[in-house]
Amino acid sequence: MEHNHSHHDHSHSIVLTNVNSSFVIGIVLNFLFVVIEVVVGLSVKSLSLLSDAGHNLVDVGSLALSLLAFRLMKVKSNPRYTYGYRKTTILVALFNGAVLLISIGAIIYEALHRFNNPEPLPGKTIAIVAGIGIAINFITALLFFKNKENDLNIKSAYLHLMADAAVSAGIVVGGIVMMYTNWFWIDPVISIVIALVILGSTWKLLKDSLRLSLDGVPKNIDLEKIKTEALKIAGIKNIHHIHVWALSTSENAMTVHLVLDTTIDKKGVKAVKDELKHRLLHMNIQHMTIETEFADDPCVVTNC
């Protein structure tokens, strides 16, 4: 029997609105805050502020790399890179996770050293600077709220910024405590808490980005649901050789073999494929290649 191949590249890929401006605003605001934290942190010798500054600087770098990746994603494909540069968004997410792990180690190392040698700190100044951080991180996070469920990099940016706002809130509390109690060991303790907060989000980011880098099935794809939906279509007897992978942090691709009823004619084959394409688009599959076979095909019978 003749094998029928269908390649589908649909225009209904996920639309990410105002992404560039969100990243630019986020980069500028967070970099300015990093400068403030470094200047104040060095002047008052606050490890919690310097740790948060280091974390925020990593976030600035992550936002910049993510912006670059989104720009590269729009570059047209060519004979050497037939999918274009979409996958740079996945590589950037993986790189961001690795850099964050290094920063966590540095923060914990310095915090343990400072815990054994606490120094007097101006709690009021620390609380004021951290309060500014809450406002900046929360405002920046809102810029990514709309698109956070459509892309791994954007969701990562949103979660990081919200975590940063929470960390800043913790530093405010620590500053107030130091004002009234002189418990200066609170500063390195807060730094360790910051590191643990970062670790939680970083571990998830690393797992997700590593899976996509290895062409694993994206988290928003349910293979069993795809099989179930395909078998609901009249004329499809079986479905096999399903492969789903991520082209980027917001686009997925799939190849699949359909086993069709022998009574279907050429027009019916097209109708079956069109219906499956329509359903796949609503299950987060933007690019697909469909091969059709018939139930009496020797290759189907012997599973060759």
Automatic annotation (TrEMBL):
Keywords: Ion transport, Membrane, Transmembrane, Transmembrane helix, Transport, Zinc, Zinc transport
Intracellular or extracellular location(s): Membrane
UniProt xrefs under InterPro entries: Cation_efflux (IPR002524), Cation_efflux_CTD (IPR027470), Cation_efflux_CTD_sf (IPR036837), Cation_efflux_TM (IPR058533), Cation_efflux_TMD_sf (IPR027469), CDF/SLC30A (IPR050681)
Membrane topology listed for this record: Multi-pass membrane protein
Chief subcellular location: membrane
Membrane-spanning residues: 21-41, 53-70, 90-109, 121-145, 157-177, 183-203
Domain Cation efflux protein transmembrane: start-end pairs: 24-211
Gene3D superfamilies associated with the record: Cation efflux protein transmembrane domain
Cation efflux protein cytoplasmic domain: residues covered: 218-291
Superkingdom as given in the UniProt entry: Bacteria
Gene Ontology molecular function: zinc ion transmembrane transporter activity
One cellular component term from this protein's GO annotations in UniProt: plasma membrane
Pfam families reported for this sequence: Cation_efflux, ZT_dimer
Family membership noted in the UniProt record: Belongs to the cation diffusion facilitator (CDF) transporter (TC 2.A.4) family. SLC30A subfamily.
This protein's name: Cation efflux system protein
Lineage summary: Bacteria, Pseudomonadati, Bacteroidota, Chitinophagia, Chitinophagales
